[in-house]
Specification:
Rossmann fold, globular
């Protein structure tokens, strides 16, 4: 296992590897990209490469240091996320981190910190971290992981070297599913098309279960678009009970509205993500207004970001679905 085994992002990986080999790693990185494209995997890989006792400028994945980092119990690698039962990364967590970074490392190598997702730091925590970024402790490496730049202070972003990660290609996702999940090629290609370039979307749940959910969701959206406010309210309430389910629905809804928009404008079926729903897409595209599709797509994106920020899920979902019922889209 090493950088070459990570799916996608060859330019970013090579840049990080060269910086490591030549001792030119930046003191703080901001990894930005959609969920599931590999940001945390690459952050872990970089931490392993810093500490690996076997490989140089890479990591083996099998030595004591690599296995301890993977298990989350290496003394010089910290993972910062909201504490159990909390919705934010607090200023107290950042203050404790600052104290640790100023202590000598156990291994003699860099201390590595991975904050994921950095967007869940509250403002006091971000301001506290800003001081660390302005005066970084010696031999420290901070990796901030974020789905987007929203919610991060401009001053904090400016102190980090930004590395952007695009969605994976359909071929990359399909190859991963065939090789790692032993999914048949035809099914893998369909799932890859639906993934929007995110391994998280297709790897987190059973493939058949995901296909079944999507068809249930499209039926619900079509009923909502017919003006059924009761279904809109019931759907919002049902989805809001589980954050991950809400996020999966909104990820899919974004792809649905994107497909409708692209097909309505171009009639190009090759660009459709939900290829198994082409007949529904063709049917809806005849009657829907472009302005409404643009509005729904923007609202789906905003709703996804809002739930990532832990806003009230039911209210967010109701707003999206009620607007869809009102406009017939």
């Amino acid at each position: 296992m090493g950088f070459e085994q990570i799916v996608g992002h060859p330019k970013q990986l090579e840049a990080l590897r060269l910086a490591l080999v030549h001792g030119r790693l930046h003191h703080a990185y901001l990894f930005v990209g959609a969920a599931g494209v590999g940001k945390k995997t690459i952050g872990l890989g970089l931490a392993k490469a810093v500490h690996c006792s076997v490989a140089t400028g890479d990591f083996c994945g099998e030595c004591v240091d690599c296995t301890r980092i993977q298990a989350g119990n290496h003394p010089d690698v910290r993972f910062i996320e909201p504490l159990a039962g909390k919705k934010e990364i607090s200023i107290q967590q950042i203050r404790e981190l600052e104290k640790e970074l100023n202590l000598r490392s156990f291994s003699g190598n860099q201390k590595v910190v991975i904050l994921d997702p950095a967007t869940l730091m509250n403002l006091p925590a971000q301001n506290a971290l800003l001081k660390t970024l302005e005066e970084p402790p010696r031999d420290s490496l901070l990796i901030l992981i974020a789905p987007n730049l929203g919610g991060l202070l401009p001053t904090l972003r400016s102190r980090c070297l930004r590395v952007s990660f695009a969605p994976l290609t359909r071929d990359q996702v399909a190859a991963f599913l065939v090789a790692q999940k032993q999914i048949p090629l035809e099914e893998a290609e369909l799932l890859a098309a639906m993934s929007m370039g995110s391994l998280e979307v297709v790897a987190a749940v059973d493939a058949q279960e995901l296909l079944t959910r999507r068809h249930r969701w499209v039926d619900l959206l079509l009923r909502v678009a017919s003006g059924d406010y009761r279904i809109a309210a019931e759907t919002a309430e049902a989805l809001a009970g589980n954050k991950e389910e809400s996020l999966r629905f909104l990820d899919w809804a974004e792809s649905w509205y994107r497909d409708l928009l692209i097909y309505t404008v171009t009639q190009n079926r090759e660009e459709v993500v939900n290829v198994d729903m082409l007949s529904q897409i063709q049917q809806v595209s005849v009657a829907v207004e472009l302005e409404d599709l643009l509005a729904r797509l923007a609202e789906a994106k905003e709703a996804l970001a809002a739930i990532h920020r832990n806003l009230n899920r039911r209210m967010v979902l109701e707003a999206l679905l009620m607007n869809a019922a009102e406009t017939g889209s």
